[in-house]
Amino acid sequence: MNPHPFDTAIALLHEPPDRWRGRTSEDYWNMVSPFGGATAGAMMQAMLDHPERRGTPLSFTLNFLAPIEAGEFAIDTELVRANRSSQHWAIRLSQQDKVLAQAIAICAVRRETWSQVEATRPEVPPADKCEIAPPRKATGFLQRYEFRIVRGKPFAVNDDSLSHVWVADNPPRALDFASLTALCDSFLPRIFLRRPDFVPIGTVSINIYFHAGEEALARQGAAPLLGVAQAQAFSDGHFDHHGHVWSTDGTLLATTQQLVWYKE
Length: 264
What we know:
Layout: H1 5-9, E1 13-15, E2 19-23, H2 36-49, E3 56-64, E4 72-82, E5 86-95, E6 98-108, E7 145-151, E8 163-169, H3 177-183, E9 201-210, H4 214-220, E10 225-230, E11 234-235, E12 238-246, E13 252-262
Antiparallel strand pairs: 1-2, 2-4, 3-6, 3-9, 4-5, 5-6, 7-8, 8-10, 9-13, 10-12, 11-12, 12-13
Helix pairs in contact: 2-3
């Protein structure tokens, strides 16, 4: 059986002790560089594969410094500090010794404690009752996801930027932390929900908090996730969004924030 395209995109060769080498994938290409979620997934995978990693991801913050070119890249991982329950990591992706993306991440050993979720999952039709939206491009990363739009019509003048969208890997793939990291970057840029015209955009920074462990991801399997997102502000060539990622059984898997540059 051929590997899943996402597994090919995040495939890494370990150069001990702390360096990993990979290659960009045409399957996850975007306008001028790889889909940011694929880059984030590869950097997450480098940390997950490190022999010193303990626990599961709690947070992941990634800043894009410059466009990544097609071809080989290197990822350097550094365990900055560790204690009995948590680890703090620095992760850098480079090409020709130039750092193009850098991340900080926290892993921790999860313990059973009192828990409460205050966020509210919206009432939406199940994924299998919603039509799959046709991809806007015949190639690239949009072919690698299935989107079922419940609320928020793209490239239209909506009253707000709030969207409810079922999203899943195409072809189906069981959820893990690398793919969840990538899926947290699959939200349509909010500016395309407020105006009908296309403008160049680029992600500046992504921040993800993981609220569930491996058992919740295993329960989800390859079923579609519900993504809910809305911008807070558009100003001075940048906009943000705050997003929630829910499992089909109503578990809040992750929350995410993003800052995006746009050009008039």
